[in-house]
Amino acid sequence: MFKLLVKMAWKNSFLRLSRTLLVIMMIGVSMSMMLGIQGLYDGMTVNMIDKNKRSDSGDISIYAKEYRIEKDLKHTIKNAAQIKEQLQKREGIEAVVLRLRAEGLASTARKSTFTTINAIDLAEEESFGKFSAFLKEGELDLDKRGALVGIELAKTLKIRIGSKVIFSTQDVSGEINSIALKVTGIVQTTNIVLDKSAIFVQSKKLYTFLGVGADEATQIAIKSHDEKLYASLKETYPNLDVKSFLELQPMMKMMQEMMRIFNSITFFIVMSVVFIGILGVMYVSVLDRIREFGIMLGIGMHYKYIRLQIFLEALFVGFIGYASGAILGIILLVYLRDYGLDLSAFADAMQSFGYETTVHGTIKFSYFSTTFLAIMSASVLSVLIPLRKIKTLKPIEVIKAEK
Predict the structure, then answer these.
(1) Is residue 131 part of a domain?
(2) Is the pTM of this model over 0.70?
(3) Residue range 352-381, pLDDT digits in tens
């Protein structure tokens, strides 16, 4: 009996071929667009988090207890080099880098602004976060008095490659010192804070300029995917300030929540369209065959078999629509992942929020599994109203009625 019902449901699903194909196309196109939007939203967030981790905090950062509050050089980690060696021996840690940072005033002949100077070792930064990928213009040359500046800071100071910048700040003894720097490169990390205020110079040069010991650092950045490492480091270094990425970047967590809300809204809208589309097809299909169902009930077929047949019809339409949407969606997501979406027309707005002008998508299995369950559920729910119509039929009256 079940095989017979399956055959009848399959044939009846395409009884009105053009109408059914239209609904399948509607489901497929809507679903593929939804998957593309979800991939872009998540891709934007993943890309921003990745760039922030690589350019600044890593997955975990360690500071002296008072440093993040006062930002004073007297609050450096005194035995940073020793701690770095200890961390590099631990399992689950992929890379460790020491950073020294000081706030001060950057000046040119025409303008000045408050900035942050950062000591970096290009070889270590390349290993830690592929720093060369941030280079927007010029070259990574920190020899002599070379310096790299954030792209937004370059716009603020109106400087370009070869420009001279004077940076002034207090050294570790409290004296005001200045250093003349030559811009050799402009970097874009998509980390808003760094792009707007950062100057990068060679580590040894800045350590000497600030009078800070070679074993000291204001930050120890750690790259690791070990979820238990954070709790372990807090126990190991109770006298230091151990922070996770999301603790240092609460805006990133808010961004993740916002993208999740946007995805949920998009998902709800598309699933509502799918539900209405299948409901319309199934309701019209039932009305077209109301006499057929009346005869089936009149000759003794149980209502549950008719109900099962209609459920199967809706599921067939929903599944084919899902399959077409999944194929279109995976093609779209692969394209967005590999080539991205060029939004250079909105470059200034995108960069001001920390986004790249070319947005790359991401692909997650959950996109397809969640959508499959939603479409199948929408297919089942869409036949409840048509089934109610059949359940209230009076077979004799339907059979006697004119076609």
Answers:
(1) yes
(2) yes
(3) 666 677 788 889 898 899 999 988 888 888
